[in-house]
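User: I need a structural model of Rhodanese domain-containing protein from Reticulomyxa filosa for a docking pre-check later this week. Nothing fancy, just the predicted C-alpha cells so I can convert them on my end. Input:
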Amino acid sequence: MCDGSNEVPILSSGITRRQLQRFHEDFVIVDIREEKEFGNDQKKKLISGIVNVPMGVILSSGIKGQKKTKGLLCCVFARISHVQEVTMTCLYVYIFNKAWRASEHSKKLFGNKKKICFVCPRGTRADLVTRWYNANTAFDCYTLKGGYSAFDEPFAKDDDWVYVVVLAYGEENPEKVGLALNLVNAGTAKGKTSTLILMANAVWLATKSFRTKNQFKLSDTFKPWEEQFANLFSKHGQLICCTSCLKERKINDDDLIKEAVKMQGPDLLVIKFFLIPKKKKIEMQKKNVLIEGKKKKSKSITHEL
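Assistant: Understood. Predicted C-alpha cells for Rhodanese domain-containing protein:
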C-alpha cells in the first residue's frame, strides 16, 4: 500500500512529514512562530535548514492591509541586496517578485527552490498563512500537516485534514459521478484537504478528449460536472488517476488535463467513502493496512450508494 511519501501534492496545500523529509531539498522551510517561541526551542532541530520568519503580521492584520504591505515590499526589493539571512521582507519579495528571484543574491539565500513549506507547532497557524499566500500569489506554498506534532505523533489521526473520495464509475453511472463530486466538494467547503481518486472508467473524466465531446450530463439534482471539478481545483483539491486504469484504457499523458496526477496504488489509508462496486468494497474492508511496518486495521467508513 502506498503511503503517499513518493508524491508531493500538486494542488493540495498540505504535505505530510514523510513527504517533507523525502523532498526536503525542494523546499524553503519556514517556521512562522514568533522569535521568542523559536529562540530556545528544541523543535527547530527536527528539521534541518529551517529558518524563522514570524508571520504574526499576517495572522493579526486584515487582508486589505496586507495587500498594501505586499505592494510596498515589491517596490523595495533592491534595498535588501545586503541581507545575509532570510527575513520576512526578503521572503515576501522572493515570492512576489520574479525578477529578484532570478538574482544571484536570491539564489544565495534560497537556492533554486520553487516551493515554500510553513511550519508551526500543530499546523493551524501555518495553514492560515499558507492559505493567505496561495490566495494572493501564484507561488507554491504548503503547510506541514500537524506541524511539529507530526514528528512526536506519527500515527496520529489526520481526519481534520484529509478527505478522500474514490470513484470507479464514469458516464455509465451519472448519479454516482454526481454524488462523488458533491462529497469531495463538501470536504473542501469544510476546509479539509480533499482528494478525488479516479479508477476504472472514471479516469475518462480527467481526459481532454472526453471533455471536448461535452456530451456527458448530470441530472438537474447536481451542478454541472465541469463546474464541480473547477470548484474542486479552485480550493486546492487534488485529482488522482490510477496509473493501471489509464494503461488499461490506453490513455496517454498528453490526453490528461493538467490538474490530474497519476499514482500507482493510490494511498487509501484515510478513505471515508468508497463509491465502488460492493464486491470490491468488501474485499478492501477485509485487508489490513501497513503503516511504517506495523499492522493497523482500517477504520474506513463506507457508504452504499
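Before docking, keep this in mind: The chain has two domains: 14-152, 162-297.
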